[in-house]
Design a protein that fits this description.
With about 260 residues, the protein is of the alpha/beta class. The protein has 2 domains: about 90 residues, D-lysine 5,6-aminomutase beta subunit KamE, N-terminal domain (Defensin A-like); about 160 residues, Rossmann fold (3-Layer(aba) Sandwich). It is built from 7 helices and 10 strands. The strands form 3 sheets. The protein has a 5-stranded parallel beta sheet, sandwiched between helices. It has a 3-stranded antiparallel beta sheet with strand order 3-5-4. The longest helix is centred in the last third of the chain and has 16 residues. The relative contact order is 0.12. Bound molecules: cobalamin (B12).
């Protein structure tokens, strides 16, 4: 749904002030000042030239009045910079739309009741942290009984039979287990994103699943701090969950999606 064309906000100058949502730019000290903060490292030695290089780069990015607020010698010929600058560009917020998961919020009992009304067997959920990634805390938070921030994991539901394969699982191994267990849902966690390895690894899983004829009959879900539902769709998944995800959100989506597809 497109947002309204204006809204009122309280600002440091006192409020409320009207914002034209068709022409939005960053806010720092005053509405519409365009203030942004950037930090990056340059592979150049620490010193005034490094700072000027940072400012010049900001100007090339189309930013105005760049100022170095912090410069740090990282050693070995590297400099870390934090700069403030002003962004002259605006965006039309009313034209922005992002695909989101269509899911009704349900508690654990509501999710189990929905499942019990439509299915005569437990849904098999297979989870893993794949590729070289060894960060298991996220997938454990979603799957394990203990859950996350007081929200119980999928093991606590009657609806699910959960298999957690742990860390550094190869895509081929994961798909082998999907076949062996007849999984209904695959949950993949990707935390490390260096050199976009999460994209490569997730896209490869979908390619392999398609080649093995598994893509259509299994729900593929991914999650992690740099993942989102739009990115998941782009990579060929059915759904994606980002930072702060609660297990009950995932559980509600799985059951509602499977009810819609098969029940
Ligand atoms: C703990 C930790 C480790 C532990 C992991 C222990 C373990 N068993 O998991 C150890 C020490 C082993 C480790 C190692 C490394 N780490 Co580390 N690690 C972290 C740290 C501090 C916390 C991660 C964490 O546990 N978060 C808590 C969980 C609950 O949050 P989450 O993972 O985001 O999960 C939530 C959501 O994202 C979502 N979610 C996650 N997965 C899934 C999956 C599905 C299906 C769904 C639905 C939802 C979902 O739900 C969860 C709950 O809300 C982060 C920094 C940080 N503060 O985040 C760095 C971090 C992730 N590590 C990093 C790095 C670089 C490494 C190493 C490469 C370091 C090195 N040079 O050796 C190695 C890599 C090892 C490997 N092969 O993977 C970087 C990654 C940078 C990047 N973007 O690629 C980070 C961001 C640190 C940093 N700022 O540089 N690490």
């Amino acid at each position: 749904m497109s947002p309204a064309a204006s809204q009122k906000v309280a600002t440091a100058a006192g409020g409320p002030q009207a914002v034209d949502l068709t022409r939005v730019r960053p806010y720092g000290d005053a509405l519409d000042d365009g203030a942004v903060m950037l930090s990056f490292s340059l592979p150049v030695p620490f010193g005034p030239e490094a700072q000027e290089a940072g400012r010049a780069l900001c100007r090339q990015m189309g930013l105005r009045e760049p100022q170095v607020y912090h410069a740090h010698d990282l050693g070995a010929g590297f400099t870390y910079l934090t700069l403030y600058a002003k962004c002259p560009h605006t965006i039309d917020f009313t034209k922005i739309s992002v695909p989101s998961l269509a899911v009704a919020k349900l508690d654990r009992k509501g999710i189990d009741d929905l499942w019990a009304r439509h299915f005569e067997r437990r849904l098999r959920v297979l989870g893993a942290c794949t590729g070289d990634d060894a960060h298991t805390v996220g997938i454990d938070a979603i799957l394990n009984l203990k859950g996350y921030h007081g929200d119980k994991g999928l093991e606590a539901y009657r609806a699910f039979e959960v298999f957690n394969l742990g860390a550094q699982v190869r895509n081929e191994v994961l798909l082998g287990r999907v076949r062996e267990l007849g999984a209904d849902v695959v949950l993949v966690s990707q935390i490390v994103t260096q050199k976009d390895c999460h994209r490569t690894n997730l896209a490869e899983l979908i390619d392999l699943a398609e080649a093995e004829g598994l893509r259509e009959r299994v729900l593929f879900v991914c999650g992690g701090p740099r993942l989102s539902h739009p990115l998941a769709l782009e990579l060929g998944f059915d759904a994606g969950f980002g930072p702060g995800t609660q297990p009950s959100e995932v559980a509600a989506w799985i059951v509602q999606e499977l009810v819609e597809r098969y029940a």
